[in-house]
Amino acid sequence: MTVHDVIESLGADVAVEGDTTRLVTSGYTCDLLSEVIAKAAPGSAWVTIQTHVNVIAVAAMVGISVVIVCEGRTCESDAVEHAAKEHLTILYSKGSAYTVSGKLYVLGLR
Does domain 3-106 fall into CATH 3.30.40.10? Predict the structure, then answer.
């Protein structure tokens, strides 16, 4: 599955369209950045409510394929700018992290 496939399947809003051909091989839901660094796998779809620039730094460090920001939140402008430089896709969902994670699970992401 690619980032493009995740976008189409979730129907989320695209805040930053990065490399949508990146493979998405798993999902990870967490708001604690140190846990994401320690436990998220490269290629993950990261589900979070965090919106600051450190999210993008962690995603780039880990090799996250797409960040999905939930609960109708939007990223700070510096985070959006940094994501664009990193070619990282950010999606916005009005759904809860729980709901979005469930949808990713149904898509086969573990």
Answer: no
